[in-house]
Design goal:
The complex is a heterodimer of chains A (468) and B (475). Chain A is of the alpha/beta class and 468 residues long. Chain A is built from 23 helices and 13 strands. Chain A has 3 domains: 3-33 and 43-182, 3-Layer(aba) Sandwich (Rossmann fold), CATH 3.40.50; 196-317, Nitrogenase MoFe cofactor biosynthesis protein NifE, C-terminal (Rossmann fold, 3-Layer(aba) Sandwich), CATH 3.40.50; 321-453, Nitrogenase MoFe cofactor biosynthesis protein NifE, C-terminal (Rossmann fold, 3-Layer(aba) Sandwich). In chain A, the strands form 3 sheets. Chain A has a 5-stranded parallel sheet with strand order 11-10-9-12-13. A 4-stranded parallel sheet of chain A has the order 2-1-3-4, with helices on both faces. The longest helix of chain A has 22 residues, at 298-319. Chain B has 475 residues and is of the alpha/beta class. Chain B has a 6-stranded parallel sheet, with helices on both faces. A 4-stranded parallel sheet of chain B has the order 4-3-5-6, sandwiched between helices. A 4-stranded parallel sheet of chain B has the order 8-7-9-10, sandwiched between helices. The chains are: A alpha/beta (468), B alpha/beta (475). At the A-B interface, helix 4, helix 5, strand 2, helix 6 and helix 7 of A face strand 2, helix 2, strand 4, helix 4 and helix 5 of B.
Chain lengths: 468, 475
């Protein structure tokens, strides 16, 4: 493997801010947090996928994939990360290398591709993504990007995360490393305020950032840069001037948060927009950090006042669903979303959570779940589709909330299902998001189709057969 | 008729093309109790799987050998062995169908050799499960090439010549662009003549959106291994799409008579199939087919008002491009821009001036001034920018539901396709305004008693003045 990628992976694995990692011994730490994939029984994306997910939300950048058609052609425009302005990130760029490039090398084609993009689209920057085949044949994308940046006078950023170095999660971090190495801190903002923050690891899926932004706007807190949802190249380049940062709970960009603290002294906390108490906690922490960094102290009181008003408004709206939802059983299978923060909202609406996944949860998360759901909380580490199907069909749950992968397990069991993963089209962040989630659950549970699709066919009804 | 060019750009912008291994795995998804698998890094499978899930809104069984950089360099035999054993243990399919990727082809894995060794080593464990392999590097060809290669590999692996064909058995080799609904229509056409249709592969059995009795980790239906083997005993095989020629050649070499239809969309194309079926069955066309033909004729008469003279830009794989372009041309429309994904002898016969092997950026540039854009869902951004309607055709269509049931073959399919296209034009009919028919300046000048200028008349007696002032007519 490219020595640079190898070194990067090691450095990402040694992440000191990750408590998972700190709890391991020296040897285990070296092995990294990558679970060995099981051929024939693996699911999920590759490192390239992860890097692209992490960076593509930067909306004004041209994202160029250097590789064969599969990497971009089979995957482009497939995420629902929203923009409030530029659309260029939704344009698919790829060198689409052919057999001759594999033999002779693809560097020339890559260089020409960068030129074509700059001439035709004039973006503030071009991001170049390495893939397996071009990595294997030894194309040096760092060198090509350096040369292109000099030649065209424009940032050309190499993102060296070929798919075969590991899973999606590792790719998130390698993509983030490219920002740290080539983008963050390269420009200065025109205006700075004591209320400038970064949000790190938030991708604005289904426009969720905009469920939170009005709260920050109301408090006068400015998002200097969101990395990377609804992002702009120049904002990211200037993000080192923020006073405080929030790292979104999924940990996908923990390295950005931690290294920006090391390099630029930007303190960060780990927060979540999912769940009412989480949202409030996040606002409190942001206010606390900003005041510590010199913002006027009245921010704390204003924040508490806003929380009080917004929490009440949300809880009142959620409680209104109680008569309808009381006693309904929910199976909650999530990956990135912290399950306990959602559990609280579901319980407030009268729903009974009969099981929740803890696959990606930390030890503290599990404690928290026990606290909320009781000692006999049904925590599911890994559920096979067959088990899920059985659980739903035996009606041990009335509805399943999960990611798209298990969608059809539920639907084929003729059971209500709601998408709460990253491909979803509904936004569930902030106070508004939780109210919307409960509303969606109610809408789905009480849809009249369930009764109809479970009706026996005429040839399954004995009475009809007797007549015949 | 058409001149075929390759795009000269270094950078593909807004890809039209998808890769070979995905086309191959899509073909494998049309086989019963099967687990398709890509031999590559896990992203290869993950991307393809997500794309098909979003298109069909169905669970897609598809596995990966999960190659990493070390196993790539050392060769993927261990990964294939583990994968095959894992799949056997967890899903116990009748068939494990493997497609290679760009990664493992660059390394040069000898998968056929690996499989022989694995089969010998685990003969007992793997009993009852067939394994088939097809070479489909990502950096060669496109989706429909992968589909074609997969079916050719299946035929090579499982079909043997039969001494005597089974009476009335008709094999069908569908091209990649046919939907589950199209396959059902073809089956019904064949069965209408009292013949039995065996489709290989048959995505109408697996991806038509039915609800199975129990959870199944493999495909939900499709062609069985016996169906594939039975191709050798068909009285006749009908292939749909030029992409299937490699397979029909192979079958003919085994002594199976084949007829290849370059399309089944359109009156003449369907007539040709019906004529063949009449000949093969020795039966007349049933009354309902006659009614359907009449309906199509009427649809063509009603539709030609709206399709005639329309300028259409199409981006699609060669066989789909040919089918759609031919229908547009037959309805009096004009295919102004045609962009495709891969080479095919069919491209020269597309009724248009030029066919470009390129991307959606090329199509967008050429579609300026067109009335309609036809391509897959990725054309939505281009259509918005061009300000013209988009008719979605091909895979993927992630922003629509019911894609499996789009029908465009046979009398009924063609009839409905004409209605859909005509209705788009009706919905976007341009309402005329008072400024739509301005007179040329010259005509206005003459009408106002000015001397004639810039006369189109070639006669030398016609004098042209150098200075012409055109009066401005008040609005």
């Amino acid at each position: 493997m490219d020595a640079r990628v190898s070194a990067k992976i090691q450095s990402v694995f040694e992440e000191p801010a990750c408590e998972h990692n700190q709890n391991k011994d020296e040897k285990a730490r070296k092995k990294g947090c990558t679970k060995q994939l099981s051929p024939g029984a693996a699911a999920g994306g590759c490192a390239f996928d992860g890097a692209k997910i992490a960076l593509q939300p930067i909306a004004d950048v041209a994202h160029l994939v250097h590789g064969p058609i599969a990497c971009e052609g089979n995957s482009w425009d497939n995420r629902n990360s929203s923009t409030s302005g530029p659309q260029l990130y939704r344009t698919g760029f790829t060198t689409d290398i052919g057999e001759l490039d594999v033999i002779y090398g693809g560097e020339k084609r890559l260089f020409k591709s960068i030129r074509e993009i700059i001439e035709k689209y004039d973006p503030p920057a071009v991001f170049v993504y390495q893939t397996c085949v071009t990595a294997l044949i030894g194309d040096d994308i760092e060198a090509v990007c350096k040369r292109a940046a000099e030649k065209f006078g424009k940032p050309v950023v190499p993102v060296n995360a070929p798919g075969f170095v590991g899973p999606k999660n590792l790719g998130n971090k390698l993509g983030a490393e490219a920002l740290l190495d080539y983008v963050i801190g390269t420009e200065e903002p025109e205006v700075m305020t004591p209320y400038d923050i970064n949000i790190i690891g938030e991708y604005n899926l289904a426009g969720e950032l905009w469920q939170v932004r009005p709260l920050l706007d109301a408090l006068g807190i400015r998002i200097l840069s969101c990395i990377s949802g609804d992002g702009r190249y120049h904002e990211v380049a200037q993000s080192h001037r923020a006073k405080a940062a929030m790292m979104v709970c999924s940990k996908s960009m923990i390295n950005v948060a931690r290294k920006m603290e090391d390099r630029y002294g930007i303190p960060f906390f780990e927060g979540s927009f999912y769940g009412i108490e989480d949202m409030s906690d996040t606002l409190r922490q942001l206010a606390r950090l900003l005041v510590q960094r010199g913002a006027p102290a009245d921010l704390l009181e204003r924040t508490e006042a806003l929380i009080a008003v917004e929490e009440k408004r949300a809880w009142d709206r959620i409680a209104a669903f109680r008569p309808r939802l009381e006693g309904k059983k929910v199976l909650l299978i999530t990956g990135g979303v912290k399950s306990w923060s959602v559990v609280a909202a579901l319980q407030e609406a009268g729903l009974e959570v009969v099981g929740t996944s803890v696959k990606k949860s930390t030890k503290e998360d599990k404690e928290k779940i026990k606290e909320i759901m009781g000692e006999d909380a049904h925590m599911i580490d890994d559920m096979t589709p067959r088990e899920m199907f059985k659980m739903l069909r035996d009606a041990r749950a009335d509805i399943m909330l999960s990611g798209g992968r298990s969608q059809f397990v539920a639907l084929k069991a003729k059971m209500p299902w709601l998408d709460i993963n990253q491909e979803r089209h509904y936004a569930y962040a902030g106070y508004e998001g939780m109210v919307d989630l409960v509303r969606e659950i109610s809408k789905t549970l009480f849809n009249p189709v369930w009764e109809q699709v479970r009706m026996p066919a005429p040839w399954e009804t004995p009475a009809v057969e007797e007549v015949c | 008729m058409a001149i075929v060019h390759d795009s000269k750009k270094a950078c593909a912008v807004n890809p039209l093309k998808m890769s070979q291994p995905l086309g191959a795995c899509y073909a494998f998804l049309g086989l019963a109790n099967t687990m398709p698998m890509m031999h590559g890094s896990q992203g290869c499978t993950s991307f393809g799987l997500v794309l098909l899930v979003r298109h069909f809104k169905e669970a897609i069984p598809m596995q990966t050998t999960a190659m990493n950089e070390v196993s790539t360099i050392l060769g993927g035999m261990d990964n294939i062995e583990q994968a095959v054993l894992n799949i056997k243990k967890r899903a116990n399919p009748a068939l494990i169908a493997i497609a290679s990727t760009g990664l493992t082809e660059t390394k040069g894995d000898d998968v056929d050799g690996y499989l022989r060794l694995i089969r010998a080593k685990h003969a007992e464990t793997l009993d009852g499960t067939e394994i088939v392999y097809v070479s489909t590097p990502d950096y060669v060809g496109a989706f429909q090439d992968g589909w074609a290669a997969a079916i050719k590999a299946l035929v090579a692996a499982f079909v043997t010549p039969a001494e005597t064909p089974v009476a009335g058995r008709i094999g069908v080799l569908p091209g990649a662009y046919l939907t589950p609904a199209d396959l059902e229509e073809v089956r019904e056409l064949i069965e209408a003549f009292g013949l039995d249709a065996v489709l290989v592969p048959d995505v109408s059995g697996s991806l038509d959106g039915h609800i199975p009795e129990d959870f199944t980790p493999t495909t939900l239906g499709g062609a069985t291994l016996d169906d594939i083997r039975g191709l050798g005993a068909c009285e006749h095989v009908i292939a749909i799409g030029e992409q299937m020629r490699g397979t029909t050649d192979a079958l003919e070499a085994l002594g199976v008579p084949c007829t290849l239809f370059d399309r089944l969309t359109g009156l003449a194309a369907t007539d040709a199939l019906v004529a063949l079926l009449m000949r093969l069955s020795g039966k007349p066309a049933p009354a309902r087919l006659k009614r359907q033909r009449g309906q199509l004729q009427d649809a063509m008469l009603d539709g030609h008002f709206h399709l005639g003279g329309k300028r259409v830009a199409i981006g699609a794989e060669p066989d789909l491009l040919f089918a759609l372009s031919s229908l547009i041309a037959e309805m009096g429309g004009e295919v102004v821009a045609a962009v495709t994904t891969t080479h095919s002898p069919l491209l020269a016969r597309v009724p248009t001036a030029e066919v470009l092997v390129g991307d959606l950026e090329d199509l967008e540039t050429r579609a300026v001034g067109c009335d309609l854009l036809i391509t897959h869902a990725h054309g939505r951004q281009a259509a918005t920018r061009l300000g013209i309607p988009l008719f979605r055709a091909g895979i993927p269509q992630f922003d629509r539901i019911g894609t499996a049931h789009q029908l465009s073959v046979g009398y009924r399919g063609t009839r409905d396709l004409i209605f859909q296209l005509a209705n788009i034009f009706l919905a976007h009919m341009h309402a005329h305004g008072p400024e739509d028919w301005p007179l040329p300046a010259e005509a206005v000048a003459v009408a106002q008693g000015q001397p004639v200028s810039g006369c189109a008349c070639a006669s030398s007696s016609c004098s042209v003045s150098d200075e012409v002032v055109i009066p401005i007519i008040p609005a």
